[in-house]
Amino acid sequence: ECRENFGPITASSPVKQYSRAYVHHLQLLHELFASMLLTQHNLHVYREFFAAIRSHIQAGTFRQYAAWFMRTQTVEDEAPNQEPKGKRRKI
C-alpha cells in the first residue's frame, strides 16, 4: 500500500518531508530511522488527539465526540477463530 506512495504520512505530520514510500523502504531494511520518524509522527497524532479530547470536555461535547470517533476512526476486529486474510510473511 505504501511502497509506491510518495506523499507524506499526513499533511500535518512533523515528518511530512519524508514520503510514505521512503518510510516503508526504511522499515523493510529495519533501519532505526524509520522507527524514529514513525515515533515523531505518532506522538504528534496523540498530542492532537488528546488536545481534541480536552477541548470537547471543556465544551461539554465529549460524548458526541466519542460517538463520532467510534463510528469513524475504528475498525472491527476479525472473528477470533477466523484465519487472517492474505499471506503472512515469515521473518
Structural account:
With 91 residues, the protein is mostly helical. Helix content is 53%, strand content 0%. It has 3 helices and no strands. It has helices at residues 20-28, 32-59, 62-72. Helix 1 (20-28) crosses helix 2.
Structure in a nutshell:
With 91 residues, the chain is mainly alpha-helical. It has helices at residues 20-28, 32-59, 62-72. 53% of the residues lie in helices and 0% in strands.
Descriptive tags:
91 residues, mainly alpha, 3 helices, extended
Walk me through the topology.
Blueprint: H1 20-28, H2 32-59, H3 62-72
Helix pairs in contact: 1-2
Put simply, the count of helices is 3
Number of strands: 0
What is the SS-derived class? mainly alpha
- Biggest β-sheet, characterized? none
As an assembly, this protein is single chain
Spans of at least 5 consecutive residues with low confidence: none
| Helical residue percent band | 40-55%
Our estimate of the beta-strand percent is: under 5%
Task: Using the CA coordinates, give the radius of gyration.
Answer: 17 Å
Strand and helix order:
HHH
Through-space gap between termini: 19 Å
- CA-based shape: extended
Average pLDDT, rounded to a whole number, is: 88
